Amino acid sequence: MPDQPTPRPVSAVPRRLRLICACAAAAIMTVMTVVAVLLKSSTTGVVAFQTADQLAMVGLGLALAAGVLWVSRPRVDADAEGVGVRNIVGSYRLPWSLVQAVRFDRHSPWATLLLTNGEEVAVLAVQAADKERALDAVQGLRALHTAAVPAPDGAASGTPLLYE
């Protein structure tokens, strides 16, 4: 059997999610800044707003915008040695020997890694909303997995490209 070329490393991020989060963060900052500017001119009769209140509103807007941007954190990086998954909370670096399959089922919102111990790791960076980018990432992950982990004797070598 001739040597097959090593598949290229895969790196993916959720493009659509990042765009939505960036727009939402910008909208939050805009609204909070407008509220902060208009805050000093309003009064309830009992409470008079001051500069510190305006700064607090801008600070609150920054904190909320940062929280929204945190949701766009997922990333996957894979090479011949293994796969690194960074989700919203938590990161994993797994060698290919621990990965049994790369799954991207028909109605799943994102890909998952099925591990040899039966657990699954969500790969939030590969989302169905990204369509062709997600398909390319899954195909690349499967190619790297196939190159790193030989198929057991008697197993079919043809893995479906998208669905299992």
Written account of the structure:
With about 160 residues, this protein is of the alpha+beta class. It has helices at about 15-40, 50-70, 130-150, and strands at about 10, 75-80, 80-85, 90-95, 100-105, 110-115, 120-125. The longest helix has 25 residues, at about 15-40. Helices cover about 40% and strands about 20% of the residues. The model has no long low-confidence stretch (mean pLDDT about 85). The protein is elongated, with a radius of gyration of 23 Å. Strand 5 (about 100-105) and strand 6 (about 110-115) form a beta hairpin.
In short:
This protein is an alpha+beta fold.
Topology:
Layout: E1 10-12, H1 15-39, H2 51-70, E2 75-78, E3 82-86, E4 91-95, E5 99-103, E6 110-115, E7 120-127, H3 132-148
Antiparallel strand pairs: 1-2, 2-3, 3-4, 5-6, 6-7
Helix pairs in contact: 1-2
Largest sheet strand order: 1-2-3-4
CATH-defined topology of the largest domain: PH-domain like
| Rg, Cα atoms, Å | 23 Å
The top level CATH class name of the largest domain:
Mainly Beta
Mind telling me which CATH architecture of the largest domain this is?
A: Roll
Low-confidence stretches: none
The helical percent reads 25-40%
Global outline: elongated
Query: Structural class of the helices, strands and pairings?
Result: alpha+beta
Number of helices: 3
For the sheet with most strands, the description reads: 4 strands, antiparallel
